[in-house]
Design a protein that fits this description.
Structural class: alpha+beta
Largest sheet: 4 strands, antiparallel
Helix content: 10-25%
Strand content: 25-35%
Strand order of the largest sheet: 1-2-3-4
Distance between the termini: 27 Å
Number of strands: 4
Length: about 90
């Protein structure tokens, strides 16, 4: 089955895509102290691209932008599949 056949057959199936904004560590006590207006500082460096995942596989690097008062994502770099076989994205 070639790419065109796959797109014809499966092109309309929904697929979860996730943007990872960063991670942080908090104690249970800190979590219970959260309130509206709390700011959570992540480990993600300012200005660095964010990883974009499809089905837990890193697909691309992206930046967060604002368009017409909505938060959006601009793909900066698509990651290439490894040579043959698994189809995993590489850094």
């Amino acid at each position: 089955m070639n790419t065109s056949d796959v797109l014809r057959r499966f092109g309309e199936l929904p697929f979860i895509v996730e943007l990872e904004l960063g991670t942080l560590s908090m104690t249970i006590g800190e979590i219970f102290q959260l309130q509206e207006g709390s700011v959570l500082r992540t480990d993600h460096p300012a200005g660095a691209p964010f990883p974009l995942f499809a089905s837990n596989v890193k697909l691309a690097e992206a930046e967060v932008i604002v368009i017409d008062d909505t938060v959006s994502v601009r793909v900066q770099k698509m990651l290439q599949k490894s040579g043959t076989g698994g189809g995993n994205a590489t850094d």
